[in-house]
Amino acid sequence: MNPAILLRLGEVEVVLRRKRIRNLDLRVSPPDGRATLSTPDRMPLEAAYAFAASQLDWIRRKQAEVRRPSAIAFAYSDGEGHDLWGERHPLRLVERAGPAWVGLSAGAIRLQVPPGTSRERRGALLALWYRGLVRQAAARLIAQWEPRLGVRVARLFVQRMKRRWGSCNIRDRRIRLNSELAKKPVDCFEYVVVHEMAHLLVRWHDHRFKALLDRFLPDWRVRQRRLNDLSRDPVGSGSRRLLPGRGARSDPGWAREERCASG
């Protein structure tokens, strides 16, 4: 493995890592705003430095965002607003003896817990509910899209993911989805599912992949932009992934397993 190189751009430091990859990957990670640039191993140092310098404004902006004190953590108390499929719903906290239960009732998210349940436990119950919703909704969409695309998904996993909305293991035909997608609009969720399934046909984000999405999901760019506008990244880090020599653009967080890099 090539050793890391520290690039100094005035007051900004960027850690350069050369890897066996095809795309440039620039990240600003919480909590301290550490900037890391991964480049193809044959890319000249001068070109990597020039690229990092061209992204200096973006790096500064993202570092300010990730270093900013986080919003007040959820208390999971009665009346607090929580998102579900792109809409905000009030939380109805019901403290009652018996098993814990979460569900949507009369336009509110009802969280029923035994008296004295901690905030952490209430949050964990809500997260588990979101994960179940994503699994159920994804299973239905996969069943609908498998015959359209002519593919078969062998396994589906749902979990909280820091930097991705989804990933696809092509060899095992395995799809992994972010449980936070339950908070996003349904059309954005469908886009993520179809995007990952499309990788079972085309591995890279090349013209063939985009043509495939154009054919089966003509408005995929609109859905992608909407998802990007709703969230910088799944859990707040900043990232940019670019093909060498092309203009900068924000990356929505897609990434392939088996080194199928997003581009």
Distance between the termini: 23 Å
Biggest sheet: strands, sense, closure?
5 strands, mixed
Roughly what is the average pLDDT, rounded to an integer? Answer: 85
- Structural class comes to alpha/beta
Order of helices and strands: EEEEHHEEEEHEEEHHHE
Number of helices: 6
Brief characterization of the structure:
The chain has 263 residues and is α/β, with parallel strands linked by helices.
What's the structural blueprint in terms of helices and strands?
Elements: E1 5-9, E2 12-19, E3 24-29, E4 34-40, H1 45-54, H2 56-67, E5 81-84, E6 87-95, E7 101-105, E8 108-113, H3 119-149, E9 155-159, E10 166-169, E11 174-178, H4 186-198, H5 207-216, H6 220-230, E12 238-242
Parallel strand pairs: 2-4, 6-8, 9-11
Antiparallel strand pairs: 1-2, 3-4, 3-12, 5-6, 7-8, 10-11
In words, what does this structure look like?
The strands form three sheets. This protein has a five-stranded mixed sheet with strand order 1-2-4-3-12, covered by helices on one side. Helix content is 33%, strand content 26%. It has helices at residues 45-54, 56-67, 119-149, 186-198, 207-216, 220-230, and strands at residues 5-9, 12-19, 24-29, 34-40, 81-84, 87-95, 101-105, 108-113, 155-159, 166-169, 174-178, 238-242. A hairpin with a 4-residue loop joins strand 3 (24-29) and strand 4 (34-40). The chain is of the alpha/beta class. It is globular.
